[in-house]
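Convert to structure. Protein one:
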Amino acid sequence: MAASADLSDSPPPADERRPADAPPLLEARDLRVTYARRRLAGGTVDSNAAVRDVTLSVPRGATLGLVGESGSGKTTTGLAVLNLVAATGSVTFDGREILGLAGTEMRLLRRRMQMVFQDPSASLDPRMTVRQLIGVPVKAHAIAAGNQAVELIVSLLEKVALNAGFLGRYPHQLSGGQRQRVAIARSLATSPEFIVCDEVTSSLDVSVQAQVVNLLMDLQADLGLTLLFISHNLGVVRQVSQSIAVMYLGTIVESGPAEQIYARAAHPYTRALLEAMPSPDPDAQELHSRVYLRADTAGSRHAASVPVGCVYADRCPFATSVCRETVPELLERADGHRVACHHADQVWAGVPPQSKGAA
């Protein structure tokens, strides 16, 4: 495995073995997740829509990067497409609707779709050894038993650049990177086709992040995995994803091929995220002018306070009355590049925003 990530400006190539017209492995349409919450005053119960009418697709063998700041609904979306939280709308996996499936039908599909969680310290049971942790899905799905199970677990450890010497260790005896490798090995135990990677590098040191990212890319190439890569780190997402969807307060505000999103983002929120991304290149003036970031003032950042119109209107430097009254549609501007913004033409053309604090 490579020790450091190749932070190139181009996204990884799509799997050349996949036909250009092949249907996506996973597709979500009008996905909506609502959580009940209890008010302190009066004890009344109302609801909070964490994900609103999200539509996305992940081609077989490719990676879709799902980005956005904390609280934007990324993790809930990842849980919903795996049918791990109650949701409405439609989620099809390999052409089959999975929302509403339960029992034996869903259990059989679980072998084909897995998740790697953000914090391995929380997702790995501290009372179990590495052998037991990876052995849970092996036993649950009756994949192997006895010596065959041990051999399988060792082979999974070797896939993630660990070895049999880790079998008897507990999570607290591992480094952060080693714990995340064990979590990845556990997700591979059922030979899945689709994996949701939820902020898998956020709790790791930068050098270890690069190692884990390279590991995932190698595994994808070797095993033909399809990934939904959730992150707030646009630098990491740029490295691993062929396409990107940008979320804000539970909605997709921009999506498209990675190279188009990074080269010519057409939503003010995406521009602000790009400007916030650190870069060692002093000549990258466009992404580091920070005019969108400075104009992005402290407006509503909670799903419960979403305005009637555009979800970003309270923070947007281009916001007008139409933004506060009408929800913008996610419309296609270029080949596969979709934007939900009434003023996308201005952003697309590079018209500088005006700070809300300006006279």
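Protein two, convert as well:
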Amino acid sequence: MIVQLSDPHVGTEPPRDADALAAAVRAVLALPQAPDAVVVTGDLTDHGAAAEYAEARDALAALPMPVHVLPGNHDDRAVLRAAFGLDGGAADPIAYAAVCGDLRLVVCDTTRPGAADGRLDVPWLAEQLAADPATPTIVAMHHPPADTGIPAIDRIGLLAADRRALAGLLERAPQVRRVIAGHVHRSALATIGTTPVVMLGGTRTQLRLDFGADVFEMLEQPPLLAVHRLVDGELVTHLQPV
């Protein structure tokens, strides 16, 4: 079982975002069954500052299970890597695979330094999926491979060519049961080909649902966490209020 959190956007001031992340951590700890791992699908901080990562790391340190992080467009790879002790060079993509109980998690880095939109290294992902074609797998990334219908967020999404390449790859990788992402600041469901996509809202503010919006309007709406669990061989996702 894997719990997903997303887009804490911890900032140095005001401290409310760190408090919201701490509340989400408490919600994970309150689950009757502890997850095998927690994944945070990007934008851990608002400005990529070391002090912000220290606050995020301290909040997540209360979790006794492995915590897997990946960068979003607000993150700084080098500072994130140093804060969480991740392997690799400072400028290298933060991308890796991990076994989480009876699931496999493949973490992708869709960030482009200095840009808000995303790219996906589909050949790298293909290698990771080919390495274990049997274990039920979740692919995690920040930028979702689907549009939401909200112009403000869709124009800084994943490159269309990468979406098409990913769709073709997933047709050849039936072990991938879910693609999970953040970035949208709303909890929404979609598909890429026949693979379900879960976009999870942030741990504090959420994007207003407006299909004509060209600008971001964030609201103080209740956050959710996602619980991804195998049930009789099928992956079920529960959206749990914080």
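The chain has a mean pLDDT of 95. The chain is about 25% helix and 25% strand.
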